[in-house]
């Protein structure tokens, strides 16, 4: 089934960046797409239908704008650079991310602004954007830059760009509600396989705590075995909960009484839940247990 048929705008689901394009206001041709990766995601007729919003009037400059056109959602941050060296004494551009119409995009708004500021600095330093037609090297650099952003953000949710004397770091941070309070008897459980964790992404305290998260150790025991102060461990785990990497469950005790709920039937009906359950309880990823 097509995703656009299954999902709807406001459903809260996140989707990948389908395309990144740079548009500018040409002093004779008007609004036009300067660069698009991959090409032809935004057709000419779609662009012309919303170009007045992509290169808007002065009142909307340096504002985050979200535009829905047919089955796509466009997120941009229009910029105007005033300088007498430009035709009409100003250079207008907008770097836009393109998503499926149902996708949640609020977490990308700071990135679009930050990337636009980075390109603004490059333009003011070396006319990087305004000389795209005249300088083939600038155009090749821009295509490479946009492909890097597209790939890295979709694959790793982060990206580092360097150009000339400038460097910028981009990271997708999901806007979430405050996590629950972490208590001594809580047991952290990974929601993602810990093999995917890169230690260089985390602070030193979190790196020290991660090896002791095994689905059975409770917070107080982790603090003791990792030789880390209890409140620091709680802060680290609360941060991991916020980013959706771990979940907190009560400690298992033989003195407690546990009963199955009707949701247990999902194990027989939901194949993905079935597989996730087997991976979670397996001693080795090479050989999964059987569920009968």
From TrEMBL:
<comment type="similarity">
    <text>Belongs to the NPR2 family.</text>
</comment>
<dbReference type="GO" id="GO:0005774">
    <property type="term" value="C:vacuolar membrane"/>
</dbReference>
<dbReference type="Pfam" id="PF06218">
    <property type="entry name" value="NPR2"/>
</dbReference>
<dbReference type="GO" id="GO:1904262">
    <property type="term" value="P:negative regulation of TORC1 signaling"/>
</dbReference>
<dbReference type="GO" id="GO:1990130">
    <property type="term" value="C:GATOR1 complex"/>
</dbReference>
<dbReference type="InterPro" id="IPR009348">
    <property type="entry name" value="NPR2-like"/>
</dbReference>
<protein>
    <recommendedName>
        <fullName>Nitrogen permease regulator 2-like protein</fullName>
    </recommendedName>
</protein>
<dbReference type="GO" id="GO:0005096">
    <property type="term" value="F:GTPase activator activity"/>
</dbReference>
<dbReference type="GO" id="GO:0010508">
    <property type="term" value="P:positive regulation of autophagy"/>
</dbReference>
<dbReference type="GO" id="GO:0034198">
    <property type="term" value="P:cellular response to amino acid starvation"/>
</dbReference>
């Amino acid at each position: 089934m097509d995703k656009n048929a299954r999902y709807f705008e406001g459903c809260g689901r996140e989707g990948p960046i389908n395309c990144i394009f740079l548009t500018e206001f040409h002093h004779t041709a008007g609004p036009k797409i300067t660069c698009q990766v991959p090409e032809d995601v935004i057709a000419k007729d779609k662009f012309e239908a919303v170009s007045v919003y992509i290169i808007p009037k002065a009142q909307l400059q340096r504002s985050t704008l979200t535009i829905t056109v047919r089955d796509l959602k466009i997120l941009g941050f229009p910029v105007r650079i005033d300088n007498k060296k430009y035709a009409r004494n100003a250079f207008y551009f907008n770097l836009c991310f393109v998503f499926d119409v149902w996708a949640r995009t609020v977490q990308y708004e700071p990135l679009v602004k930050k990337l636009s500021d980075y390109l603004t600095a490059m333009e003011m330093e070396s006319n990087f954007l305004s000389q795209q037609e005249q300088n083939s090297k600038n155009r090749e650099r821009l295509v490479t830059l946009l492909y890097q952003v597209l790939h890295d953000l979709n694959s790793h949710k982060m990206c580092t760009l360097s150009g000339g004397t400038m460097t910028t770091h981009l990271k997708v941070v999901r806007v979430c509600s405050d996590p629950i309070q972490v208590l001594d008897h809580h047991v952290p459980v990974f929601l993602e396989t810990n093999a995917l964790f890169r230690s260089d992404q985390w602070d030193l305290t979190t790196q020290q705590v991660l090896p002791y998260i095994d689905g059975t150790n409770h917070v107080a025991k982790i603090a003791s075995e990792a030789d880390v102060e209890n409140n620091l461990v709680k802060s680290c785990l609360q941060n991991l909960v916020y980013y959706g990497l771990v979940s907190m469950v009560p400690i298992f005790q033989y003195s407690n009484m546990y009963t199955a709920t009707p949701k247990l039937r999902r194990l027989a009906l939901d194949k993905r839940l079935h597989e996730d359950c087997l991976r979670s309880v397996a001693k080795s990823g090479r050989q999964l247990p059987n569920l009968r």
